[in-house]
Amino acid sequence: GVKNGINAFGKKNFIGTFAPPFAVINDFQILATLEPRDKRNGFVEAVKVACIRDAEFFNQIETDADALRLFEPAAVQRLIHRCAELHLNHIATGGDPFEMGSARPLDFGHWAAHKLEQISEYRIRHGEAVAIGMSAAARISRDVGLLDAATVERQDRLLERFGLPTRFPGADREAVRRAMLTDKKTTEGSVRWVLLEGAGRAVVRGDVPADVVDAALDAVL
Predict the structure, then answer these.
(1) 18: which strand partners?
(2) 198 membership: H or E segment, kind and range
């Protein structure tokens, strides 16, 4: 990908470089080396980019969910191809590959995913933490009037069909809140939330009321 980093000082990818590649090779056979849990974590990236960029892709993932859950090759190949295509289009035409801005649509679900991983002592994977973050962000989108409740339920139901969590009961809410205030997506004390206006449409908002954030944290932690 673009970011080449290592974790340091309690922060993920804190030291490293940005180097957009000339090409990326996807070798489908490498998936055979992964455990089922790690394969499922990869589905999060596809659901995420579908939520922010392509409603039809979201529909297709729902249609293929049973086949994907069984890791049927044709369904997984379709998923990977479209997911990579959307990421490439985003970075090439409307993205921020050097992360100069305060938030990017691809940050959807990353509100405190790295902190959730750390709190769990890495018992939960990155994709699982992002799934929890997506659930919270969808609820915030609903509660500020951007998203209908049915779409929130569709997103959570799809993640859960893949065996991915949408809650992390018992997590330290204050630790998560502190992490949000020190994250790169926070500017002058205001979290820059990537929210949904509908399936396939994302928007960045920095004016989410504290009580709405609290309600989302209560729902997922």
Answers:
(1) 3
(2) strand 193-198
Model pTM greater than 0.85? yes
Residue that the structure tokens 């590959």 belong to: 97
32's CB contacts (< 8 A; 6+ apart) are none
- Among residues 173, 180, 184, 171, the alpha carbon closest in space to that of 123 is found at 171
* Each residue's pLDDT expressed in tens, for the chain with a length of 221 residues: 577 888 888 777 789 887 777 888 889 999 999 999 999 999 999 999 999 999 999 999 999 999 999 999 999 999 999 999 998 887 777 666 666 665 577 889 987 787 888 888 889 999 999 999 999 999 999 999 999 999 999 999 999 999 999 999 888 888 887 777 666 555 555 678 999 999 999 999 989 998 999 999 999 98
- Report the C-alpha gap between 88 and 151 in whole angstroms: 26
Q: 3-8 and 186-187: which strand pairing?
A: unpaired
- CB contact at 8 A, 191 and 137: no
Distance CA 202, CA 205 (A): 10
Q: Which two tokens stand for residue 35?
A: 């455990």
Three-class SS state of 11: strand
